[in-house]
Amino acid sequence: QVQLVESGGGSVQSGGSLRLSCKVSGYSISNYGMAWFRQAPGKEREGVSCINFIGSSTVYTDSVKGRFTISRDNAKNTLYLQMNSLKPEDTAMYYCAAAGGNGCILRSGYIRNWGQGTQVTVSA
């Protein structure tokens, strides 16, 4: 059974940092791209960042460039998202996502498996 389990969310003040983790079980992620998406209340789910299967290529949505860093540890079957200089507009449910291929494509249609999400709340 494939499972993607996120952790590391929480409540922080503006300017703070959080590190999200996503532990995958049920298959090896080493041949697949991975991504983080987020969804704020009343808004559509948006892609935050993706990384290809070996970590050599990454993409970030414009609003998080220079503040967030995606990384992966294939030996631990785990994906990470380091979030610095957090802003209230980063408040959302954050979802880990496993792609159906080995590339970094920040589109929902490219995703094969989703996690349940972890809440990030940033106060002003």
Radius of gyration: 13 Å
**Structural category:** mainly beta
What is the chains' assembly state? Answer: single chain
How many helical elements? 0
N to C succession of SSEs: EEEEEEEEEEE
| Total number of beta strands | 11
Instruction: Indicate the overall shape.
Output: globular
Q: What is the averaged pLDDT score?
A: 97
Uncertain segments are: none
The description of the largest β-sheet is: 7 strands, mixed
Explain this structure to me?
Helix content is 0%, strand content 50%. By secondary structure, it is mainly beta. The radius of gyration is 13 Å and the shape is globular. The mean pLDDT is 97.
Explain the layout of strands and helices:
Layout: E1 3-7, E2 10-13, E3 18-25, E4 34-39, E5 46-51, E6 58-60, E7 68-73, E8 78-83, E9 92-99, E10 111-114, E11 118-123
Parallel strand pairs: 2-11
Antiparallel strand pairs: 1-3, 3-8, 4-5, 4-9, 5-6, 7-8, 9-10, 9-11
Summarize this entry quickly:
Helix content is 0%, strand content 50%. It is mainly beta and 124 residues long. A hairpin with a 6-residue loop joins strand 5 and strand 6.
Salient structural properties:
124 residues, mainly beta, 11 strands, 0% helix, globular
